[in-house]
Every structure is written in structure tokens, then in C-alpha cells.
Design brief:
By secondary structure, the chain is an alpha/beta fold. It is 35% helix and 22% strand. It folds into three domains: 237 residues, Glutamine Phosphoribosylpyrophosphate, subunit 1, domain 1 (4-Layer Sandwich), CATH 3.60.20.10; 201 residues, Rossmann fold; 147 residues, Glucose-6-phosphate isomerase like protein, domain 1 (Rossmann fold, 3-Layer(aba) Sandwich). Bound molecules: fructose -6-phosphate.
């Protein structure tokens, strides 16, 4: 969603801010702007490229801030875009988050005669900071005084004409990091904006404020100055570039074999798993009477498989809750006997973060399965496992989803081997896990076939995705992928649910994608296919290699992936579904990496 960049140093800030804003585009936005200290502010609706085109040729300055806005308070207009200024135009502010008490603060400021230029909550904060700065000697005191009056969440970055080389950043509930480069300092809400310039970063924590000048930085919390750990970003700059691929989504799907290898690297024993991030809390997890998994969207669907894996291999009762529901629910279990696992690629999804905070408030042990190192959920949870999937830029989760499944297998294996899972079953899982990257490569080789199947179904308006047991969550995920990227109306169901309502829609125009690997529920899934066929519905079957001929007479098209352990099969069957969604969207010439209305990281409720 919204993104922040800032720079102060010896170089021209303009190209640095523009490249930072472009790097943040994947998060979703509808307008963008920059402010260069002692030069001015330029804002535009639409793409960063529009903003770039409208910059005067000679614009130059060594300190500035920039922002990509995803509209919440007021439509996406130039007036509502950031940076915002106070009426006297002595400060410029960019802000991520929401100022909850903005209406009452605004009413008081209007009473004092202040005229507002936008409808945003952010401008209220800009006016407050400007007002304080007219009476306080330095920018950081003014920011601190203004922030003491607001309620809500923020990551902010402020610049002022009176203190030209200085930036002040503050964080509460919205990520911000400082990048240390040889020629100066960067500030950003997302590592991708900093990565081309430096990998040396400092993550700000809630309640901290950083004062950054060309010469150095100072970070303070309420109790006074804080000594921060300097960290190195583990991602490489090529990982945030398309590297010749038409779309990030395709590049990221094709990376899946390597991602599985990276997720498993150093974590497999001959019959079990080692997860360094869980070592200290393992005894407490093993005593848990219930594991609650939470997340949103695809992360939630990975949790549905995680639930089955944990119950199947570790024998611990598990349940999955949507984070956007869990956070409002009453926690009835004994917190000492329950463990929460929050799943989030970005580590910034607000509902998931709030669910973690709620569980912590109740005294529960909280774990994270997170891809972005140093993200809010990674920091908020007591312990966890990183996915090591590398940056995911395409809005649709692909490689990160597969890596979430791989992490759940590792957790289930580790817990299982510490409980009742036999050595032989542990060895079998490990053996099959080691083969997964190669098998995933074989699943990816289906691409040309999927391209032509997508061409056959390109004008489809509606689709069901149906699967049983391990493949019920994959059916949900397949439907989500198709709808979000290709805008085809798609719904996922447990195949057994068909007869309880959905079958009413089947007719010769309706596509059903059936997940029918040769597993313990195969015959039942095949019956569902027969029922759809009998009603003239169109069928795309996804099965396992060697089983194709059993389905040719039933389906319009059959795809097959290699057969593996039943519990690992979803890691392979998800791949053709991602490719199918991708090819359908490509045929429709849609903006695959940034579909309409969607943002990569959902930081509002
Ligand atoms: C779907 C998708 C979303 C995310 C969801 C959670 O392709 O990407 O449904 O899975 O927004 O995001 P994270 O994992 O960042 O918490």
C-alpha cells in the first residue's frame, strides 16, 4: 500500500527518490509525489512514470522525501497525494498509516483559522508539526510534540526548509528503516527502495524517532537515545528486478524449485528437521494442547494445509482462523496451552499483526512464518521461521505460498519426531522433501501445455476449483489466483460440497478445475467429475503422472504433475494453477503484477 522514501546526502536526491518510488510500485498505489527541500513539491495521480515525466529538467537538491499513496481518506487526487505541507509551508510530511483522531484534531485547527488543502488525515499531522515548528527550535521537538497529540498508526518522514539537510522519521505500527550508504542516508518503508544503494540498514521500532542528517543519525525512544543494531539485508538487487522476464509473477513462479531448496537448506536431518528459530520455544510448543494458525488470503490457505500437516504428523489439535476475524474473537483457550502461528509473506499485513498482538496480550506464545526479515510480524512474534523465498514483487503470492507450505512441512516434521511420528515415516518425508525441487521443475515444464489450455478457456467467465482433503485448500488458492490476476469469477470448494449448492450453476459454459491426484480420496473426486460431466460442464483435470488416461474420457483437458507423498502433493499441484492464472491473465493483456484494486501488502484494516 502506501510507501515512503527519503534521502539526505551528497548526491542529487531526485533520481534516488524516483527509483525508490518505482521500487515501491509493487505494493500498490494510486498517486505519488516528492518534495525536495528548498526546491518544491511535485505530485501526480497515477503511475510514478507520470510524476517523473512532469519533473522540471533541472530539478536538483540533496535532501528530499517521496511517497506512493493508496487512497484511504479522500480520493486519489493531486491535493490528497503526499507530501503534505502545513499552511505556512515550512515542513513537508509523508505518512503511512492512519491518524484515528484526525477529525477532532482537524476541527480544532479549523477553529484556529487553519485552511486545509486536502481531505487527508495526514495533512492534519502536517499542520500540527508546522504549528509546533513555528514555536520550537528544532524539527525533532516539533515532530515529538505533534505526535503526542495523535492516536493511530504511523510511519512518517518529515523535512523542513529551515533545517535543510535534516530528515526526521518516526514509527508506530508502520514499518520504517534507515539505510546507511557512503554518500548519505536513506529512509524507506520497504527494503526494495534502499537495496540498490546499500544493504546496511537499521530497523526502527515502534515509539522510536530518528533524526538523520548528511553527517549521521540519532535514534531516540521515550526513555532517551537508543543504540541500534546495524543489520545487513540478505536480498540481492537482482531479486527485485525482472531480469528479462515479461512479469515478476512469471519470474517468481519459475523460481519455485530454487525457493524450495532455499527454504529447506540446512534444515533437514535424515528423519527430522532443525529449525533454529524455534529451538528455545520447542518445549513449550510440544506441550501445546492447541495450535492456532492465522493469516489472510493465500497465507490463510497455506495455514489450512499447515493445520492438516500438524495434526497428521505431530498429532497436536490445530485450527486455522482468518486473522481479520481472530483479532475480534474471544480467546477461550488457556493461553499457556495454546500457540499461535501467524503466516505472512510481507510480515506487514495489519490484521495478522493485530491478531498476533491480541494473542500476546492473552499470554499466548506467538510464532511467525514470515518471508521478510525484520518485518513487523517477524519482530512482534516471540519466535519463528523465515521462508527464505526472496522478495516477492508480483502482487499474487506464488513462490512465497509454496515456501509457506514447505515451512509447515518442516514444523510438522520437527514436532512429529518429538512426539509420535516414527523414524521410518520421518525418513520417508525427508526423502520425498529432498526430491521436491526436481519435481517442481517437472511441474513447471507444463507451461506450454497450460498456455494452450488457457487459450481454450480464455473466454471463460466463471470457474469452480474443486478438491478434497489436502487439495481442498489448493482449490481455494487456485480460485483466488485466477480471480485476482485474470478477473475471471472463480470460487474454490471442497469437492464434497458440490452437491450442497454449487452444482446448480454447472452448464456448458461453466468451467470446473478439478484437483484429482492419485491419492486416498481420488475415487471420490472422480465421482464429482462424473457429476459435472453429466450436467454438461467443462472440466480441466489436474492429476498425477501415470493417471492421465483414467481421466481423458471425463475431462476436456488433463494436466499431470509428478506423484509424491500425499501430504507434499499440494506443493506440486499449486504450481500449474499459478501458471494457469498467469496465462489466462496474459491472454487478456491484464496488468499481471499489479492487478486493479490490489496491493502487495495490506497495511490497513
Ligand atoms: C494472494 C495474495 C494475498 C496475500 C494476503 C496476505 O495472491 O497474495 O491473498 O496472501 O494479502 O499477505 P501476507 O502474506 O503478506 O500477509
Amino acid at each position: 500500500m502506501c510507501g515512503i522514501v527519503g534521502y539526505t546526502g551528497s548526491k542529487n536526491a531526485v533520481p534516488i527518490l524516483i527509483s525508490g518510488l518505482k521500487a515501491l510500485e509493487y505494493r500498490g498505489y494510486d498517486s505519488a509525489g516528492i518534495h525536495i527541500v528548498n526546491v518544491g513539491t511535485i505530485k501526480r495521480t497515477g503511475k510514478v512514470a507520470e510524476l517523473e515525466k512532469s519533473l522540471p529538467a533541472a530539478i536538483d537538491g540533496t535532501t528530499g522525501v517521496g511517497h506512493t499513496r493508496w487512497a484511504t481518506h479522500g480520493p486519489p487526487t493531486e491535493a490528497n497525494a503526499h507530501p503534505h505541507a502545513d499552511s505556512a509551508r515550512i515542513i513537508a510530511l509523508v505518512h503511512n498509516g492512519i491518524i484515528e483522531n484526525y477529525a477532532e484534531l482537524k476541527a480544532a485547527l479549523v477553529q484556529e483559522g487553519i485552511v486545509f488543502a486536502s481531505e487527508t488525515d495526514t495533512e492534519v499531522l502536517a499542520q500540527l508539526i508546522g504549528k509546533e515548528f513555528s514555536i520550537k527550535k528544532d524539527l525533532e521537538s516539533a515532530v515529538r510534540a505533534a505526535l503526542s497529540k495523535v492516536r493511530g498508526t504511523y510511519g512518517i518522514l518529515v523535512a523542513a526548509e529551515r533545517e535543510p539537510g535534516k530528515l526526521v522519521a518516526a514509527k508506530l505500527g508502520s514499518p520504517l528503516m534507515l539505510g546507511i550508504a557512503e554518500d548519505g542516508y536513506h529512509v524507506a518503508s520497504d527494503a526494495s527502495a534502499i537495496l540498490p544503494y546499500t544493504r546496511t540498514v537499521i530497523y526502527l521500532e515502534d515509539g522510536e524517532m530518528a533524526t538523520v542528517t548528511k553527517e549521521g543519525y540519532r535514534i531516540e525512544a521515550d526513555a532517551g537515545p537508543v543504540q541500534k543494531k546495524i543489520e545487513e539485508l540478505e536480498w540481492g538487487v537482482e531479486e527485485i528486478q525482472k531480469m528479462g522476464y515479461e512479469h515478476f509473477m512469471l519470474k517468481e513462479i519459475l523460481e519455485i524449485p530454487e525457493v524450495i531448496t532455499n527454504t529447506l537448506r540446512g534444515r533437514l536431518l535424515s528423519d527430522s528437521a532443525i529449525l533454529g528459530g524455534l529451538r528455545d520455544v520447542l518445549p513449550r510448543i510440544l506441550k501445546a494442547k492447541r495450535i492456532i494458525i492465522t493469516g489472510c488470503g493465500s497465507a490463510y490457505y497455506s495455514g489450512l494445509i499447515g493445520e492438516m500437516l500438524i495434526e497428521e504428523f505431530a498429532g497436536i489439535p490445530a485450527e486455522v482462523e482468518l486473522a481479520s476475524e481472530l483479532r475480534y474473537r474471544r480467546f477461550t483457550m488457556n493461553p499457556k496451552e495454546a500457540v499461535l502461528i501467524a503466516v505472512s509473506q510481507s510480515g506487514e499485513t495489519l490484521d495478522t499483526l493485530e491478531a498476533v498482538k491480541e494473542a500476546k496480550k492473552h499470554g499466548m506464545l506467538t510464532l511467525g512464518i514470515v518471508n521478510v526479515v525484520g518485518s513487523s510480524i517477524a519482530r512482534a512474534t516471540d519466535a519463528g521461521v523465515y521462508n527464505h523465498a526472496g522478495p516477492e514483487i508480483g502482487v499474487a503470492s506464488t513462490k512465497a505460498f509454496i515456501s509457506q507450505l514447505a515451512v509447515f512441512v518442516l514444523i510438522a516434521l520437527l514436532l512429529g519426531r518429538n512426539r509420535e511420528l516414527s523414524k521410518i515415516e520421518g525418513e520417508r518425508l525427508v526423502t520425498e522433501l529432498r526430491q521436491l525441487p526436481e519435481l517442481a521443475r517437472s511441474a513447471l515444464s507444463l507451461r506450454p501445455q497450460i498456455e494452450s489450455i488457457a487459450a481454450t478457456f480464455r473466454s471463460t467467465r466463471d470457474a469452480y476449483f474443486l478438491g478434497r482433503k489436502w487439495h481442498c485448500p489448493i482449490a481455494y488458492e487456485g480460485a483466488l489466483k485466477l480471480k485476482e490476476i485474470s478477473y475471471v469469477h472463480a470460487e474454490g470448494y471442497g469437492a464434497g460440497e458440490m452437491k450442497h449448492g454449487p452444482i446448480a450453476l454447472i452448464d456448458p459454459d461453466f468451467l470446473s478445475v478439478i484437483l484429482a491426484p492419485r491419492d486416498s480420496v481420488y475415487e471420490k473426486t472422480k465421482s464429482n467429475m462424473q457429476e459435472i460431466r453429466a450436467r454438461g460442464g467443462r472440466l480441466l483435470a489436474l492429476t498425477t503422472q501415470g493417471n492421465e488416461s483414467d481421466l481423458f474420457s471425463l475431462a476436456d483437458a488433463v494436466l499431470s504433475v509428478p506423484l509424491t507423498h500425499e501430504a507434499l502433493q499440494p506443493l506440486l499441484t499449486a504450481i500449474p494453477l499459478q501458471l494457469f492464472a498467469y496465462e489466462m491473465a496474459r491472454l487478456r493483456a491484464l496488468p499481471i503484477d499489479q492487478p486493479r484494486n490490489l496491493a502487495k501488502s495490506v497495511t490497513v484494516e
